[in-house]
Specification:
This protein is α/β, with parallel strands linked by helices. The protein is about 30% helix and about 20% strand. The chain contains 11 helices and 9 strands. Strands 1-2-3-5-4-6-7-8-9 form a 9-stranded mixed beta sheet, sandwiched between helices. The longest helix is centred in the middle third of the chain and has 17 residues, at about 155-170.
């Protein structure tokens, strides 16, 4: 896999000048207020009793997300955690075309003493359907262009809302310290963690933004060699009479480069220089706009898997260095 983008010295200077929509803040304030008002009850946690695990407790979660609709997740706690323990928590958002998967895939953080909420991705995971309310014909290119003609109907309005509501849910859990909740994710999950950090302010204690997707959409569509940014390229290329600016005007409401200046939590980003899916310049575009304390972990020979478990080890140490410990 060759280098896919600019050399590192140029990436460290790379900035984009895409302006945010004038009503960006209002759009998201109203979206989240509507979702919170639509909730008909709190999150529910059903114990998973057939687990063979002996050091953690697992719960099948449903919390109210977009339009009050139930979003699935796993809550994994250190065995015996009880109300009042005030555990720090890590919320994990799922990569593209993935969901919460098996709880057996998510044992590192609870093994280290953290409450861990793993969020299903609507329309992608195994337990959270997407109602797809977008009117008109849908692109055969897939999920990325669902509802793209209208910011109100675009699919990532629903996913970002779900991500914020997941943070709301875990902060209300009686085992969790609401002042010490970390948002995290890789690829799409990293983009959702970044968006959440930008929308919730001090409600997030830190952000772990790993090879993030959903950043600097236009450049991603121009230079990514593997999907899902290439879905935009195909969508626009197949509709040569369509106005591409209308598409990017929708995407501006969901771009990490516009969430980043609103984020204040300390953040650890990562970038992989041989990433054909999320080109490194798209990651640096968001990173350079991030308003809070920030660090970048660079993986010179990493593909879209980034630093793999080596990055996880760095995240565990980085969070502990900031005093977010059990």
């Amino acid at each position: 896999m060759p280098l896919t983008d600019l050399p590192l010295e140029r990436l460290r200077e790379y900035h984009c000048d895409v302006p945010a929509p004038a009503d960006f803040a209002t759009f998201w304030d109203e979206t989240l207020a509507a979702a919170r008002s639509a909730a008909t009850g709190p999150a529910t946690y059903r114990p998973v009793t057939d687990s063979a695990l002996r050091t953690v407790d697992v719960f099948d979660v449903r919390f109210p997300g977009w339009d009050g609709q139930a979003v699935a997740g796993w809550l994994i706690l250190p065995r015996g955690a009880a109300p009042g323990d005030a555990l720090p928590a890590v919320v994990r958002y799922s990569p593209y075309n993935n969901g919460r998967g098996s709880y057996l895939d998510h044992l590192a953080w609870p093994s280290a003493g953290y409450a861990h909420l793993v969020v299903d991705a609507r329309g992608m995971g195994d337990a959270t359907p997407d109602p797809d309310p977008a009117p008109g014909p849908q692109s055969p290119r897939g999920f990325m262009t669902r509802g793209i003609a209208d910011r109100d109907q675009y699919v990532y309005r629903r996913l970002v809302t779900d991500a914020v509501r997941a943070l709301d849910a875990v902060r209300d859990h009686p085992v969790v310290d609401p002042a010490r909740v970390v948002v995290s994710g890789r690829s799409q999950g990293g983009g959702l963690a970044l968006a959440t950090a930008g929308l919730v302010g001090g409600d997030a204690a830190a952000a772990l933004v790993d090879v993030p997707f959903l950043c600097h959409f236009r450049r991603g569509a121009q230079i990514a060699s593997q999907g899902p940014y290439t879905d935009f390229t195909a969508y626009l290329g197949e509709r040569q009479l369509a106005d591409p600016e209308r598409t990017f005007a929708t995407l501006d409401y969901f771009d990490g480069v516009h969430f980043a200046p609103r984020a204040t939590a300390p953040a650890l980003f990562s970038v992989a220089l041989m990433d054909p899916v999320c080109p490194p310049s798209t990651v640096y575009a968001a990173y350079h706009r991030y308003a809070g304390e920030r660090e970048m972990e660079v993986w010179p020979f990493g593909d879209h898997a980034g630093g793999r478990t080596a990055q996880l080890a760095k995240q565990l140490a980085w969070v502990a260095e900031r005093g977010i410990t059990p």
